[in-house]
Specification:
Elements: H1 3-13, E1 18-19, E2 26-27, E3 32-33, H2 42-56, E4 61-65, H3 74-83, E5 87-92, H4 111-131, E6 135-138, E7 143-144, H5 152-169, E8 175-179, E9 189-190, H6 195-205, E10 209-214, H7 224-233, E11 237-242, H8 259-271, E12 280-283, H9 292-311, H10 315-323, H11 327-338, H12 343-352, H13 359-366, H14 368-375
Parallel strand pairs: 1-4, 4-5, 5-6, 6-8, 8-10, 10-11, 11-12
Antiparallel strand pairs: 2-3, 7-9
The structure holds alpha-D-psicofuranose and manganese (II) ion (2 copies).
Alpha-D-psicofuranose binds next to loops.
Length: about 375
């Protein structure tokens, strides 16, 4: 196989999971903007997600958020997805929207609240059993706002205890992905603030516990690709929540704010052997002011472009330059790949897969946007149902 053929073959295998909540209305704490044609239930979210897969050929699974996507019959929901050519992906837990969770969920000082949160997490595993999902994605809003508010170490103990109970419940082929975030909604301490804390808990739990890197969950200036390289070396990178940020947890389209960072991350993924089904590429985004489905298509394409560039890095030349201490040449090799216009290559890949080379244009021509705007009245907010 020529090198280019190998790059194309790799690109054809790439799968990006889209989040059900990205199809719903969203906004900031100041305003949620309603858009025409937004889904009214989880079934319609899957219909939209299927369109993203239809035109990109690269978004075969859809993440659910419980209870935002609560359904009476999860097997029926999974069937609905499969009839449209997609599958249900990670089940995201939600222990942050009830009044009970004001002081935290599984780290809460009151055992009754901890029990309630744990029961929710166990219910998420029941849902995984029904949908065939393999990943439970855990993000905890737990933390404190004021020094002295609660005991930092005791909260870590409660976290470890709760995670262990959920870990025990995982079945064959199921895993838990622990997500960290450095602040928000807690402002003084966060119970899982960084990759180190997530890693320490996952290491103790065992091989079914892996760390998730949400690209929007770091302090400005953090070298995310270093974290990726380290987690891969340790066999603990479970996946990504991709999005872009300028300031905090902005949840903008991945690859929009800093495509170079995305390239550097993807290079480390490939370098570290993480371009494999064990590392889940998921989006975690909200489209507040832009049309949602084309924005998600654009996001999938941005991941593909960064991946294509990372695959094109001449690793032999890079290795030579690194070994000989040729700093400028090593940097130039990397930049050559980054500066390559990979859009024609990806257009070719799509044509070879029987797809339109321009997924956004194909979506626009399909008439889906007009159809849903006409048929769906009263679309829901991303967090609806909680
Ligand atoms: C938290 O900021 C987060 O990134 C987690 O992944 C949540 O599940 C998601 O956003 C949706 O609120
Ligand atoms: Mn996330
Ligand atoms: Mn987030």
């Amino acid at each position: 196989m020529t090198e280019l053929a190998a790059v194309k073959a790799a690109l054809k295998t790439q799968a990006v999971e889209t989040p059900s909540w990205a199809y719903g209305n969203s906004g900031t704490r100041f305003k949620v903007f309603a858009q025409a044609g937004v889904p009214r239930d989880p079934y319609e979210k899957l219909d939209d997600a299927a369109k993203v897969h239809e035109f990109t050929g690269a978004a075969p699974t859809v993440a659910l958020h419980i209870p935002w996507d609560k359904a009476d019959d999860y097997a029926a929901l999974a069937k609905h997805a499969e009839e449209r050519g997609v599958k249900l992906g990670a089940i995201n837990s939600n222990t942050f929207q009830d009044d009970d969770y004001k002081l935290g969920s599984i780290c809460h000082p009151d055992a009754a609240v901890r029990r309630k949160a744990l029961d929710h997490l166990l219910e998420c595993v029941d849902i995984m059993d029904a949908t065939g999902s393999t990943d439970l994605k855990l993000w905890f809003a737990d933390g404190t706002n004021y020094p002295g508010q609660d005991d930092i170490r005791a909260r870590q103990d409660r976290l470890a205890e709760g995670l262990a109970e959920v870990y025990e419940r995982l079945g064959e082929g199921q895993r838990m992905l622990l997500e960290y975030k450095f602040f928000e909604p807690a402002f003084y301490t966060t119970d899982v603030p960084d990759w180190g804390t997530a890693y320490a808990h996952c290491l103790k739990l065992g091989p079914k516990a892996q760390v998730v890197v949400d690209t929007g969950h770091h302090a400005p200036g953090t070298n995310i690709e270093f974290i990726v390289a380290t987690l891969l070396r340790e066999g603990k990178l479970g996946g990504f929540d991709f999005n872009s940020r300028f300031y905090a947890d902005d949840d903008l389209m991945v690859g929009a704010a800093d495509p170079f960072q995305l390239f550097r991350i993807m290079y480390e993924v490939i370098r570290g052997g993480g371009f494999s089904p064990e590392v889940a590429f998921m989006l975690d985004q909200c489209h507040n002011i832009e049309a949602k489905i084309p924005a998600i298509i654009r996001s999938v394409m941005n991941v593909q472009e960064a991946t294509a560039k990372a695959l094109l890095v001449d690793r032999e030349a890079l290795g030579e330059a690194q070994k000989s201490g040729d700093v400028l040449e090593a940097n130039a090799v990397l930049m050559d790949a980054y500066n390559t216009d990979v859009r024609p290559l990806l257009a070719e890949v799509r044509e070879e897969m029987g797809l339109d080379p321009d997924p956004i244009a194909a979506y626009r021509r399909s008439g889906w946007a007009e159809k849903i705007a006409e048929e769906r009245v009263g679309g829901q907010q991303a967090g609806w149902g909680a």
